[in-house]
Amino acid sequence: MNTRKILLKLGATCEGFEWAADKPLREAWETCHRGDWMLWAAEKVSV
Fold first, then answer.
1. CB neighbours of 45 closer than 8 A, spacing ≥ 6?
2. Are 20 and 38 in contact (CB under 8 A)?
3. How many CB atoms lie under 10 A from the CB of residue 10?
4. Is the Cα dihedral 31, 3, 7, 44 positive or negative?
């Protein structure tokens, strides 16, 4: 599953989706400049 599909499934915000959708998942995580997005993602996948 690619980043775009994962973000759609999790219900990402438009801003977060636009920023990350075209990046590989690992790159999106490693270069994310928004801690709140990272916390949101971690909560969504039950980390």
1. 10
2. no
3. 14
4. negative
Tens-place pLDDT, residues 1-47: 899 999 999 999 999 999 999 999 999 999 999 999 999 999 999 98
28 CB-side CA count, 13 A: 18
User: What 3 state SS string does 8-39 have?
Assistant: HHHCCCHHHHHHHCCCCHHHHHHHCCCHHHHH
Determine contact, residues 21/7, Cβ cutoff 8 Å: yes
